[in-house]
């Protein structure tokens, strides 16, 4: 008798098409022992996800229905997973109906709103994402939900607002205030730079080392410790998104040229290693017109200078967590 667990593990390491094949064979075979984890209904759920990843939403829906028949009972409601695959199949109103059904049953389930926000945003339906996330945020503000999920809802919504070129609205700013109030210690530990939630209207220019300056900067300030320019750019992108989610007006990135910067700091008698010095330098550079605007507009090249469009480059970097 073959071990279902072993096949499952192998499938999880495979690419989507191969994963589909392995999981299909696994759930069809009769000589497999499902005594260990995972239970067979979870394997059906994984198969559903694999179908979706491989671009077969209709089969994903059928596999998920089978998982439910066999006892799948995860959170949030199974209709949320079905909605995800239905949306992938392009059936927007059917997906909406599934989500509405799940909400009617349990309107306080915050993960429902989180999942809805994610699936709509994944399908570039940002207005729907914003609306579902707004409902979730309202429920979270009303109740005593954990601040983790509230933070996630707020960040997802900030991202969709950003995608539509909208500024944070009153609900968004209220939620941000709540997050601040929930984590007073964390807030106390916030450095003066970059300014965060307490200063929602602050206009910010972020200092950065361009690709041809980063190696030199790391040699001088080893604490920068970035594995690659790409990783560094994604981290900057995440910081900008974090600040945007906090309601800040992020104007863009100002480049720092190491030698010129060090010389300027020496002249002024300030420490070039400090974040404050870099920030001051960035603000001045921006005032002099030396600033890459962020976020890039629709179809524009990425601010990081990779040459790719923003959408295909740094746009998918997640918002950075609080330091
Ligand atoms: Zn980029």
Structure characterization notes:
The chain has 323 residues and is mainly alpha-helical. The chain folds into 2 domains: 2-186, Tetratricopeptide repeat domain (Serine Threonine Protein Phosphatase 5, Tetratricopeptide repeat), CATH 1.25.40; 189-316, no CATH class. It has helices at residues 4-13, 16-28, 40-53, 57-69, 78-88, 92-105, 110-122, 126-142, 147-163, 170-182, 184-188, 211-220, 229-245, 258-268, 275-287; strands at 2-3, 32-33, 203-208, 249-255, 292-293. The strands form 2 sheets. The chain has a 3-stranded mixed β-sheet with strand order 3-4-5, sandwiched between helices. It has a two-stranded parallel ribbon with strand order 1-2. Helix 3 (40-53) packs antiparallel against helix 4 (57-69), helix 8 packs antiparallel against helix 9 and helix 9 (147-163) packs across helix 13 (229-245). The protein is globular. It binds zinc ion (ZN). Zinc ion is lined by residues 233, 302, 304, 306, 313-314. The site of zinc ion (ZN) has 6 residues, from loops.
């Amino acid at each position: 008798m073959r071990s279902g667990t072993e096949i499952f593990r192998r499938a999880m390491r495979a690419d989507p098409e191969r994963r589909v094949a392995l999981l299909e064979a696994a759930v069809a075979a009769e000589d497999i022992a499902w005594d260990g984890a995972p239970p067979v209904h979870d394997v059906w759920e994984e198969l559903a996800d694999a179908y979706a990843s491989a671009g077969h939403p209709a089969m994903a829906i059928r596999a998920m229905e089978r998982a439910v028949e066999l006892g799948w009972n995860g959170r949030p409601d199974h209709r949320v997973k079905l909605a995800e695959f239905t949306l992938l199949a392009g059936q927007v109103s059917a997906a909406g109906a599934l989500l509405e059904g799940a909400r009617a049953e349990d309107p306080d389930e915050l993960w429902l709103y989180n999942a809805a926000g994610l699936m709509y945003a994944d399908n570039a339906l940002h207005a729907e994402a914003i609306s579902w996330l707004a409902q979730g945020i309202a429920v979270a503000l009303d109740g005593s939900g954990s601040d983790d999920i509230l933070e996630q809802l707020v960040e997802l919504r900030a991202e969709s607002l950003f995608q539509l070129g909208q500024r944070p609205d009153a609900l968004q700013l209220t939620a941000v205030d709540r997050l601040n109030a929930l984590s007073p210690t964390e807030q106390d530990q916030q450095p003066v730079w970059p300014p965060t939630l307490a200063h929602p209207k602050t206009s910010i220019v972020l200092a950065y080392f361009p690709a041809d300056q980063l190696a030199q900067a790391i040699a001088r300030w080893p604490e920068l410790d970035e594995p690659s320019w790409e990783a560094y750019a994604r981290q900057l992108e995440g910081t900008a998104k974090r600040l945007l989610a906090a309601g800040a007006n992020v104007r863009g990135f100002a480049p720092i040229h190491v030698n010129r910067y060090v010389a300027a700091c020496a002249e002024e008698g300030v420490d070039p290693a400090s974040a404050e010095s870099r920030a001051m330098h960035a603000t001045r550079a921006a005032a002099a017109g030396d600033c890459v605007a962020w976020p890039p507009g629709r179809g524009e090249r990425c601010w990081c200078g990779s040459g790719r469009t923003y959408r295909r480059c740094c746009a998918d970097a997640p918002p950075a967590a609080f330091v």
